[in-house]
Amino acid sequence: MLRVKVVNKPTSQNSCKGLKITAYSEPSVEAATELLPGETVVKEGKAAILFPSANEVFYNPVQEFNRDLTCAVITEFARELLVQRGVKLVVPGEEDRVVVSLGEEEVEEEKKEEEEEEEEEKNGADEPALTATVGEKCEKGLRVLEGLAASGLRSVRFALEVPGLQSITANDFSAKAAALIARNAMYNGVSHLIQASCKDASMLMYEMRGKKQRYDVIDLDPYGSPATFLDAAVQAVSDGGLLCVTCTDMAVMAGNSGETCYSKYGSVSIKSKYCHEMALRIILHSLDQRAGVYQRYIQPLLSISADFYIRVFVRVFTGQATVKNSASKQALNEIFCCYWTSSGTRLGGPLWAEAIHDLTFVQKVLSALSANPGRFGTSKRIEGVLSMVTEELEDVPFYYTLDSLSSSIRCNTPPMLQFRSALLHAGYKVSLSHACKNAIKTDAPPATMWDIMRCWEKIHPVKREKLSNTSPSFRILSKEPSLEACFTVREDANPQSRRRHLTRFQENPQAFWGPKARAKAGGGISDNLQDKRKKFQNKRKNQITESSELKKFPCKKFRKGTCTYGDQCSYSHDSVPTNEDKME
Is 42 domain-assigned? Predict the structure, then answer.
């Protein structure tokens, strides 16, 4: 059977001119279950995905953590939302009783039939609650859109692992990818839930902006920046629906190009040690700003920085009165280039200034995961990351890093527990951060942080005679601390996630585990990324080993007239031929 779909050209988002017809064949059951020459089967979670040997569709195995976490979050979101519709979720492997050890407290959850009956009474439901299981279509369930589905792996996993779904639209602009999605849906026996689509993701979401057409869950996991899809996404998600967004353009969001970041997200990024949390607050600000245009606002459920990307899960609501308060949820970020003076500041933002997690929701996800530890392949890492999230200070944006504090005064780095204990002895709150291994989140002012470092330097002195009088370290240490720090280790300085030796920061899973090569518009994979990296390594084939050889290269500062070394300069000051000389 030949299916023909009308696909909008990927021109401007507001343009409706010019349509092209993309055709792809929907395979028969026999064709879908038979491997084509050169094809391989990749298994992840409950799914088995067909992949062409030529890698014509993008796939990155390192993102399994991302997909596992998404399945866990959508499951709890569905459980919370569908109970209001009289639907009870049944997740394979879950026990009747859930016990999560969080140190001194134990959170116990039992299957609460009485609460479900109360919910039914509130909703006026006289009939017994419906039961939703994985792999079955639920008429009162969630409508899900995966905007950039590639092979359809994520959508297939939703169908096989998340109960309470009515339909899943797996979309990709590539006709080859759309055909592969249809094959994979049939290969896994979930074609009754998954509908393959071949459209521009933005245009598809714009078409579904109507209140009765909107999706309950929209998942966007693009290669690079999701900026071009955000405007359509905040309109196409239902009221109270879930929006899942991944950003892999971390160089832009972490401060390497503040101007580019502003053009994409409406926020200026600046280089800092807390760049990963800053990136999370940038994307949350961008989502809230775009939602506000349509009298909508966001409620972050979970915001994660992991590996080479960030991932946010937010609910989108409609409310004109609440939108008016959005301005008070944003803030500017000011960095002092010199900690010891008020000059030389850099200004970034605006950024999301409110909480980036809903700890009640995170606790539900964590409890369900602990009840069913064998559900995901990366369960241990998810448990470790979410445990750290629950320990983070909600009302403290950003963090310090111990190595940065120590390098500023040229002293050795204090142990984490001793530094945390010093802050606790001083009466301040302190926590770690899931975004950085040696991070310190605290409500202590900067002056207190430097006083603690001065006290540490007195115990472990640096060689003052080697410090320049104009150096930052000299000027910081020349001031006496206004408090006497106590570095005696306290028991509460060691968080529960650390005591339990949870997997919080995993080692690199494999060589070259970062972002893979971008998929081409026609469906193929671009040139090998490692070949490109090697191409730009060692640009000078004959590396310079002696300083005398530098005289062969012209001095750039001399060319500009700013070189002050004269004859002592290591580079050549010979006149550089102009364009006119070259023409002669």
Answer: no
Tell me if 355 sits within 8 A of 394, measured CB to CB: yes
Length of the chain: 584
Question: Which amino acid, residue 432?
Answer: L
Q: What domain range is 290 assigned to?
A: 65-94+129-391
322 vs 317: CA distance, rounded Å = 9
237, 264, 62: which is closest to 144 by C-alpha? 237
Q: Note whether 272 and 170 are same-domain residues.
A: yes
Q: Do both 147 and 279 map to the same domain?
A: yes
Burial group, residue 288, by CB count within 10 angstroms (0-12, 13-18, 19+): buried
Q: Is residue 558 part of a domain?
A: yes
C-alpha to C-alpha distance for 491 and 482, rounded to whole angstroms: 26
Same domain, 383 and 464: no
Residue 531 resides in a domain: no
Sheet of 436-442, strand order: 400-401, 436-442, 430-433
Task: Round to whole Å and give the CA distance between 234 and 219.
Answer: 12
- Contact present, 156 and 111 (Cβ < 8 Å): no
Closest CA to 410 of 466, 455, 451: 466
Query: Each residue's pLDDT tens digit in the chain (584 positions)?
Result: 334 343 343 433 333 333 333 445 556 555 566 788 878 899 999 999 998 865 555 677 888 999 999 999 999 999 999 999 999 999 998 864 444 444 444 444 444 445 555 555 555 444 547 899 999 999 999 999 999 999 999 999 999 999 999 999 999 999 989 999 999 999 999 999 999 999 999 999 999 999 999 999 999 999 889 999 999 999 999 999 999 999 999 999 999 999 999 999 999 999 999 999 999 999 999 999 999 999 999 999 999 999 989 999 999 999 999 999 999 999 998 875 544 444 467 889 999 999 999 999 999 999 999 999 999 999 999 999 999 999 999 999 999 999 999 999 999 999 999 999 999 999 999 999 999 999 999 999 999 999 999 999 999 999 988 898 888 899 999 999 999 999 999 999 999 999 999 987 776 666 666 666 665 555 555 556 566 666 666 555 566 667 777 888 888 888 878 888 888 888 888 865 544 444 44
| Whole-prediction pTM | 0.81
Structure tokens at 374: 């064998």
> Nearest Cα to 150, choosing from 131, 120, 171, 135?
171
d(CA 548, CA 527): 39
Contact 196, 178 (CB under 8 A): yes
Domain count, the chain: 3
10 vs 5: CA distance, rounded Å = 15
The full DSSP string for 357-390 is --HHHHHHHHHHHHH-TTSSTTHHHHHHHHHHHH
Of 55, 53, 60, 57, residue with least CA distance to 515? 60
Quick check: is 264 in a domain?
yes
**3-state secondary structure string across 539-583:** CCCCCCCCHHHHHHCECHHHHHCCCCCHHHCCCECCCCCCHHHHH
Is 83 found in the same domain as 222? yes
Domain boundary among 357, 391, 425: 391
